[in-house]
Amino acid sequence: MAEKSKKNFLVQGSVLAAAGILVRIIGLIYRIPLTNIIGTEGMGVYGTAFSVYDILLLISSYSLPTAVSRLIARELARSRYRNSRVIFLGACIFALISGGIMAAFTWFGANFLVGLLEMPRAAFALKTLAPTIFMMAFLGVLRGYFQGHGTMIPTALSQVFEQIVNAAVSILAAWLLFQKGAALDAAANQTGYYASAYGAAGGTIGTGAGALTALLFCLFIYIVYKPTMMKKVNRDWSTRVYSYPHALKILVLTIVPILLSTTIYQLNSIIGQLIYAQYYGEGYEAIWGSFTGQYQLLIHVPTAIAAAIGASIIPSLTRAVEHHEFEDARAKMASAIRFNMVIAIPATVGLAVLAAPILSMLFRRTDTDLAVQMMLIGSSAVVFTALSTIMNSILQGIGRIWVPVRNALISEVLHIGFLALMLWVFNIGIFAVVLANILFYISMGVLNYLSLRYIVGYEQEIHKTFLLPLAAAAVMGVLTFLCNLLLQKATGSNTLSAIVSILAAILVYSITMLLTRGIEEEDLLRFPGGRKMAALAAKLHLLRG
After folding, report:
1. Spatial CA neighbour of 474 closest among 502, 438, 512
2. What is the spatial distance between Cα 250 and Cα 278, in angstroms, rounded to a whole number?
3. How many Cα atoms occupy the beta-carbon half-sphere of 142 within 13 Å?
4. What is the mean pLDDT of residues 184-206?
5. How far apart are CA 82 and CA 517, in angstroms?
6. N or C of the chain: less Cβ packing under 10 Å?
7. Are 284 and 124 in contact (CB under 8 A)?
8. Distance between CA 286 and CA 542 in Å, rounded?
9. Residue 222 has what pLDDT?
10. How many other C-beta atoms are found inside a 10 Å radius of the C-beta of residue 329?
């Protein structure tokens, strides 16, 4: 039973992780023409609007999927179907209130908010995101509802549809509005002000179109599934049924700590920008565009796995704790952390080794030298972000939702102090932001681990979780570097050498992990399509007995 449960959450997490990576890849691809259309300056404006949007989205609804999935999973574990429905409807009321208030605040407060970041032209883009905040609140409730029932598929599919529509609309709208802004600049005899502002706003229109698509899709799935769920609700004769005020109270008490810890995570980025803006002054759009539009964009692709496994493990851990299956819970923690490290460690090495060819391939028309330097210094952010993120989710899943808040506050104090020191004492510019972000995630990871060790006696396995992936990634890194170097000289094509080197890196790492027993047959069988992968590995004599 425990093994089946562990496999199920990994399968569901893998589905969501695959969708998350696909979403990040689509985001990576569409940012290329978007950057070519509006330039790095426009991307700096676009990134600033999104930094503010992320915080406002956080406050209104970002914690809703986690809170709703945890509460619904708890009620379903107790077979209280009527309570699960009351929580869902209460969450819809909460979304209406919080989403409406925050959308209005975004629209009317846009000029003030972006003014704090010394980038007033980002107000156009931020205002376009106001309706998206309202839609995302309801979308968060629906995704949390499905996740609480133990399925990540509606969330995964809605994310993919959302991003496809987002990409198409963003590129078209950015091009149209950039032309309009350029015409206004020409009329005013100035360069770039309205073009970058309007172009960035065009990019954010796609975000709203994508959110609407995902919301309609999830509503359709809910309507189809509703009759099945209502049968269970009607057969539920529980005497303790929540009132809507009580459901809202439970929601708020669950949302607040999750919201605070996640907000601090996001504030980490915007506080970094605020401090850097004070250090640099006006005119830092292009530098910030390289940081958010190139460096962070690549870093966020592999970290999507941590977010996906985190989303899947919360309801799974909640059910295990409700049934007092603590050994099963610890096994799930170990599987989730190991799964993340097996991906994050080689991703860190790969991004460092192939930083220049990948960025040159993706952003041919823009200068990538600064982003390459940031990647060489800061690719380790992938490992530490993944580790802190999954441990955050584990703590939330076992009901210790205030612990990540405390840990995040401590880490943020360290982040601010270190960033100020690196900027004003050591004067290292944007690299201070990169290093300070890494310190924040290291601190979160260490504090979260110590908390887990104290609360549930969790002891982290080191050999197969960290050492073997690190050794395999080191082999991969050396061979990938040589492969790229030789292909560059032989073909003269950066794109060809980058693509082949990436494929070679995946192949070398996978084979090395199998040969060193970093990945065994039982590990493969826990993943979607694991039987086929195990059969292929056995035929190639890569599985050692």
Report:
1. 512
2. 41
3. 27
4. 83
5. 47
6. C
7. no
8. 48
9. 93
10. 25
> What are the residues whose beta carbons fall under 8 Å from the beta carbon of 37, sequence distance 6 or more?
171, 174, 175, 178, 199
Count of C-beta atoms within a 10 Å radius of residue 278: 12
Residue-wise burial string across 475-486, b where 16 or more C-beta atoms lie within 10 A, e elsewhere: bbbebbbebbee
In this structure, are residues 273 and 65 in contact, taking their beta carbons and an 8 Å threshold? no
Structure tokens at 182: 């350029």
Contact 11, 530 (CB under 8 A): no
Amino acid at position 200, single letter = A
Using CA atoms, how far apart are residues 396 and 377, in angstroms rounded to an integer?
31
What are the tokens at 421?
Answer: 């020191």
Contact 15, 152 (CB under 8 A): yes
Residues 6 or more apart whose CB falls under 8 angstroms from that of 244 comprise: 86, 89, 90, 93
How close are the terminal C-alpha atoms of the chain, in Å? 25
Q: Residue 529 above 70 pLDDT?
A: no
Gap between the Cα atoms of 68 and 315, Å rounded: 10
CB 501 within 8 A of CB 374: no
Q: What does the alpha-carbon distance between residue 538 and residue 545 come to, in Å, rounded to a whole number?
A: 10
pLDDT of residue 3: 43
Q: What angle do CA 216, 221, 225 make, to 5 degrees?
A: 145
Assess contact for 337 and 6: CB atoms under 8 A: no
Mind listing the pLDDT tens digit for each residue in 55-65? 788 777 777 88
Q: Which residues contact 510 (CB under 8 A, 6 or more apart)?
A: 519
- Confidence at residue 527, expressed as pLDDT on a 0 to 100 scale: 64
- Six-digit token pair at 20? 């998350």
Q: Which two tokens stand for residue 472?
A: 């395999």
252 contacts 8 by C-beta, under 8 angstroms: no
Give, to the nearest 10 degrees, the angle between helix 81-115 and helix 2-57.
30
List C-alpha distances in Å: 281 to 53, 125, 275, 289, 511. Answer: 22, 21, 10, 15, 50
Q: Is the distance from CB of 241 to CB of 82 less than 8 angstroms?
A: yes
DSSP state of 214: H
Q: Say how far apart CA 49 and CA 201 lie, in whole Å.
A: 9
* Alpha-carbon gap, residue 475 to 512, rounded angstroms: 8
492 phi/psi in degrees, rounded to 5: 70, 5
Q: What is the DSSP letter of 460?
A: -
Q: Does pLDDT of 87 surpass 60? A: yes
- CA nearest to 294, candidates 26, 16, 3, 44: 44
Region of poorest pLDDT, from 143-157, 164-178, 248-262, 490-504: 248-262
The verdict on pTM exceeding 0.85 is no
Let me know how many helices (H) and strands (E) the chain has, helices first.
Answer: 20, 0
Query: In terms of Cα–Cα distance, which of 264, 274, 260, 265 is closest to 433?
Result: 274
Q: Where are the alpha helices (DSSP H) in 291-402?
A: 296-322, 326-353, 355-362, 369-378, 381-397
Give yes or no for residue 246 having a pLDDT over 60: yes
Phi first, then psi, for residue 462 (nearest 5°) are -105, -45
Average pLDDT, the chain: 87
pLDDT tier, 530 (very low <50, low <70, confident <90, very high otherwise): low
